[in-house]
Amino acid sequence: MTSSASTATPTKHAFDRRVEDVRSPKSDINALILDYLTMEGYPNAAANFSREANLQPHQDGASIIARQEIQNCIHGGNIQTAIETLNDFDPEILDEDKALHFALLRLQLVELIRTCNASGGDIQPALKFATEQLGPRAPTNPKFLEDLERTMALLLFPSESLEPQLADLLKPGLRREVADNVNRAILERQSQRREAAIRQLVRMRVWAENTAREKRKNLPERLDIGLNGEEPDSPSRQILQGENDHEPMITT
């Protein structure tokens, strides 16, 4: 007699059953998605989604496009263009935020050093830029001075021999950090929140789960974030899968 494996459906955890009983209104989910697309700088996707979901746009399209252009420049290493575009958009942002201005100039120095190291070329442009743009600003803040000294150390060692702390300056993470800070500064200047609401919700969810586990509450071993409940043809699902737009993703 041949035995067969059991096909009984696994019993769901009590927590999972409680979650299934909670249904967030689709209008709330759509508003959350539109908020993300707007705050993170996806103008075409935000416009398409607002039409398909019958929602009012959260921000003027020109503002979103400007933020996207600035972020794309930073992620591409075109820092001078990013600074000029930001100044054209709102010249007071860098005038009032000295730390942000220094961070952009420091990143521009990193890009000059990167170009110099890659080509084995003249280091004079990097030295001249550091002397004229960063040198006068560094003494005004101990952190500025420390950041400048670390950055200049990139000129002293081959890129393959850098200590991890210095090597990190040449990785995409620094561009992402600066781009994110610029985006937040623009949003704050426009009296907006500094980040998309979903980022706050995710942090809150992580905190709630960690707190519950610390108190030994009865939870499943693994909790999904819960983004798989949309219908395949819903506007929010299409946006998340990139079907409505072909804008380059900005990793922030």
From TrEMBL:
InterPro entries tied to this protein: CRA_dom, CTLH/CRA, CTLH_C, LisH, Ubq-SigPath_Reg
UniProt feature, compositional bias: Basic and acidic residues: 243-252
Coiled-coil region(s): none
Top-level taxon of origin: Eukaryota
PROSITE patterns: CTLH (PS50897), LISH (PS50896)
Pfam families: CTLH (PF10607), LisH (PF08513)
UniProt cross-references to SMART domains, sorted A to Z: CRA (SM00757), CTLH (SM00668), LisH (SM00667)
CTLH domain mapped to chain residues: 63-120
Disordered: region residues: 218-252
Role according to the record: Involved in the proteasome-dependent degradation of fructose-1,6-bisphosphatase.
Protein name: CTLH domain-containing protein
Organism expressing this protein natively: Fusarium kuroshium
Classification of source organism: Eukaryota, Fungi, Dikarya, Ascomycota, Pezizomycotina
